[in-house]
Amino acid sequence: EIFREFITSGPIIGMQLKRLDAIRHFRTVIGPTNSEEAREVAPESIRAQLGTDNRINTIHGADSDASATRESEFFFRPQSLMKRNPFKYPNTILMLKPD
Fold it and tell me: Which Pfam families match (predicted)?
């Protein structure tokens, strides 16, 4: 409930990252889900710098190919994405909620 209230409390920015091994690379940039853990093990990560706790952690990134596919289909129309981006790389999705 807290997460839903947070994520729907204002605009979000949705993006789809396409590159080889996208999920692993992006998860390194955003850091662990829990912002407190991120501050300890990945202090330069987005969540370490901007997150507040385990739920309000500033940014979402898919954690698997299946999640990325499901979330991409939810937020973006797959047929229009393929026309604009013909790359065959695995992808991940991110949501950023600016203040």
Answer: NDK
